[in-house]
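Protein: 2,3-bisphosphoglycerate-dependent phosphoglycerate mutase
Species: Chelativorans salis
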Amino acid sequence: MSGILVLVRHGQSEWNLKNLFTGWRDPGLSEKGHEEAKDAGRRIKAHGLKPDIAFTSVLSRAQVTNDHILAELGQEGLETICDQALNERDYGDLSGLNKDDARNRWGEEQVHIWRRSYDVQPPGGESLRDTGARVWPYYLHDIQPHVLRGETVLVSAHGNSLRALVMALDGLTGEEVVKMEIATGVPIVYRLNADSTVASKEILED
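Structure follows.
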């Protein structure tokens, strides 16, 4: 048995609440989002997990989620590395638009393809495969070595950057991963073997 990887999607953002495409835009957490992030910290603590290092994106909703989790753990000063490799998928021209308005403009089917296909890019943006192309190398080079040294690593990031990471960890196909939902503020705990394969996976739900 090697180390532990804890993945947390940021708490609900103000734009999640308003049903807007967010991507690399930087709205803050909603009131519910702050509570979800604190609750994630309490769940991690209840499972006896204590991170040795944390990673997050350069977007504030992920960073604030990370801060809330560490505060609940009494680890406010923990080393935290921020990198845009962990940013949400870039939705390009859709960013800031209401999802219903986008459907009215481009049609239900086209917007569904942009949101839920693996390799189709929205105008000016990234596909999930593009997101994975920056997440996977960063994980292998910067995050995984800490886990393989037996450390507990916290990653506070986004629905699609984490979806890409879970795809690799769980061995999912492109078709499978786009159907998978990652809830806000719900920790996913992986225990890895020394050869980097997954020994176990647990979702810390109610």
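Remarks: Residues 4-91+128-203 form a domain with the Rossmann fold fold (CATH 3.40.50.1240).
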